[in-house]
Amino acid sequence: MDDSTTRRFCVIGAGYAGNGLARALKQAGVPYDQFEATGEVGGNWAHGVYDSTHLISSKRSTQYIEYPMPAHYPTFPSRAQMLAYLNDYVDHFRLREHIEFDTEITEVRPLDRSGSAGWRVTLSTGEQRDYAGVVVANGHYRERNTPAYPGVFTGRQLHSKDYTHPADLGDGGRVLVVGGGNSASDLAVEAAATFGSADMSMRSGYWFIPKTIFGIPASDWDRVWLPMPVQRLGFRLLLLLSCGRYERYGLPEPNHPLFAKDVTVNSSLMYALLHGRVRPRREIARFDGATVHFVDGTSGRYDTIVWATGFRTRFPFLDESMFVWENGQPLLVEHTLVPRYANLYIWGLVAPRSGAGKIISIGSDFLAEAVAAQRLFPVPLSDLLGRRFRARSSILAGSAEILGRIRSARRALRGHVRRARLLGGGLAAWGACCAARPLPATTSTHGRHVTVGKIEELPA
User: Fold this and answer.
1) DSSP-derived secondary structure letter, 69
2) CATH, domain range 3-142+313-455
3) Which of 49, 191, 336, 420 is 20 to 30 A distant from 179 in Cα terms?
4) Is the domain 145-310 a CATH 3.10.310.10 member?
5) Quick check: 45 and 89 in contact, CB under 8 A?
6) Reported pTM
7) Domain map of the chain by residue range?
8) Which tens digits make up the pLDDT trace of 79-106?
9) Interatomic CA distance for residues 366 and 363, integer angstroms
10) 247-280 pLDDT, tens per residue?
11) Which own/partner contact pairs does 293-301 have at CB distance under 8 Å and 24+ positions apart?
């Protein structure tokens, strides 16, 4: 590889997270190529959400800090406004000239055991290119998750990712939306507005949060780090004062602590429930033609089922056995670094409780710094930083928490860089010493055999 190739990076995806990272790489002087499988900028906002979608986080918490949204945008911008903003961002920072559209990545493989020597990327055209490293920003709304139940349903079925407007629901007015998340709530309300009513089947209770609490966007309450017990107590009090008890709406009480799983941010659903336009149902037990039987013994006849049941995290172009999987998510250091691998970064695999704009902006600058720093070390940065920051699989976190951890990781990285420059010729020995230390204890339930203190097996 020539010198430009040994420094050049590959960025996969031109969506919300990928473009923020591309901006940081460009400003840091890191050469890169960016690939987008479709013909548009915007990722999920361009081809994965329905026409009536609005942000659930405020524009203040969603905008990149280096490029604020237009002043005339409302507090919760629409899909069209968000897409226009993302395109404006790309053009403002002149990122479009680096994007190769309609080019899918079919395979990414390390050139050596750890990826320290670089990565070989195969394009959908068959062309292969070698890069110093790869940033995966392909989004986590990729593989549809559709549960299976006994029996056969003879009506229309579609996943929420395939829904764009009410015409997709067909002519029949009996609609069952399965799920309790943000998409499920939106689509149940939209189906009820179209046909007069809709049912909503939930496996268990969810934490439903209004989009504003006392006039303040719910996302804007997550600005200062507080211990989780304090956060839960304070937010539950806010919910009780603003919404009351869930039983008033016919909703089951959540069976998990607040913020232990993703929350649903929606104000229209509560209105529709109180007006009888949306009717909550229990989990599906079985199908019998057009009839759906629920676990509480009730049943209903439906023309259409919408599966708003989420997605599975996948990296189809990578050998997924290189990850340690836990509860369907890979173990990563600070949501980004892959243990035991250098120059491979997973970017955007996080679900903050508020808008991700500040996280992407500050995190992208940190990642651009880490990309340049990796060349100083004979071992993966994931293993150096992993001594202090334990690899975790959960993608849920508060924004204040994530930003605090980014600042801590940045300080730790700069400390390693200073030591590396001071050591000079002794760097290899220092790196080997660091690599020999045991990894933090962890467990896995998928794909790899892991014991406390070390990984037993790694791919060659």
Assistant:
1) P
2) 3.50.50.60
3) 336
4) no
5) no
6) 0.87
7) 3-142+313-455, 145-310
8) 999 999 999 999 999 999 999 999 999 9
9) 5
10) 889 998 888 888 878 889 999 999 999 999 999 9
11) 294/201, 300/174, 300/176, 300/199, 301/174
